[in-house]
Amino acid sequence: MPTDAILHASRQFLGVDPTVLITLVPITKGGSGRTVVRVKSPVREPFIGIYWTDERPDSDNFLPVAKFLKATKLNVPEIYHEIPHRRVALVQDLGDDDLYSLKDAPFSEREPYYRSALEQLDKLFYSKGPKDFELMPPFDEGMYGWEQEYFLDHFVEGILGMDATPLRESPEMADLARRLGSGAKHLVHRDFQSQNLLLNGGKSWLIDFQGMRRGRQEYDIASLVYDPYMNHSAEEREKILGIWEDIAEERPQETIFRECATQRLMQALGAYGNILKKRQDEWYRQHMPVAAKLLGEVTAGTALESVLAPVLEKAAAL
């Protein structure tokens, strides 16, 4: 059982016998499918226990990626204890506040955390990693095509009940995957959105980074700017891009940025549909119309506008 494995690791880490009371408090946010709990005991401040299975191929990457990011001096939780063969890790507790928790706060209150998050992204851009550093397969034409199929399978067919054959046969979709897959390969977080940015000590801290791989940096930037959880206004999106320009001294190239946003929003809709189906977690349903609206915005005036129009029209009624 996951909790038994975390409890065993916690007692081993704390050096206490079974008579010492240890409490595990579930943390249910997020869609990674891992078991995450807050571990409380009378002998040490709380820490986080994580248990994963081999169901998702990226889960075993959590420990090596965490160590690499920590060594690169990015803001990630410290690993206190690990039992890799049991797929258990005990890590620093950074609290419950994430960027999503500030959704209704004035932008001026959120701005320092966007800046901190984007500073981490800029640092990641220049991080190469050891030569033997094993990551998930890079974003190439095939991976972008897989994300598109994920969208068609779990959202277009699974949620909307539509026939996705026209989209599967669309040259515009294939062209998007080919164009994005031909670009530079830098390290990307892969899920750079508000729930994966914890707020602690006035800074943003990265979590759920086990899916890190090589790809286009614009994918991560678009994930933050066009985050359906936050549903930024056009003005807020411009402010976030302004922060990035201040840090990186350049803006993302407009066409590539919109295409990365298109790809990311399709992936997000596929993920919402998959989680809704597998876990019956209705919380994700409310974000589908938002993601569809944003997808309509970034594809307006492009070759994909008419291709996606029937899907987005039906999605708007969710």
Describe the structure in brief.
The chain is 47% helix and 12% strand.
How far is the N terminus from the C terminus? 37 Å
Oligomer state of the chains in this structure:
single chain
Our estimate of the beta-strand percent is 5-15%
Number of strands: 9
Radius of gyration: 20 Å
In CATH, the topology of the largest domain is named Aminoglycoside 3'-phosphotransferase, Chain: A, domain 2
Structural class based on helices, strands and sheet pairing: alpha+beta
Question: What would you say this structure looks like, in words?
Answer:
It contains eleven helices and nine strands. With 318 residues, it is α+β, with helices and mostly antiparallel strands. It folds into two domains: 2-91, Phosphorylase Kinase, domain 1; 99-315, Aminoglycoside 3'-phosphotransferase, Chain: A, domain 2 (Alpha-Beta Complex), CATH 3.90.1200. The strands form three sheets. The protein has a five-stranded antiparallel β-sheet, sandwiched between helices. Helix 3 crosses helix 8 (234-248), helix 7 (217-225) crosses helix 9 (254-279) and helix 9 (254-279) packs antiparallel against helix 10 (288-299). The model has no long low-confidence stretch (mean pLDDT 95).
Which terms summarize this structure?
Phosphorylase Kinase, domain 1; 2 domains; Aminoglycoside 3'-phosphotransferase, Chain: A, domain 2; alpha+beta; two-stranded antiparallel ribbon; 318 residues; 11 helices; five-stranded antiparallel sheet
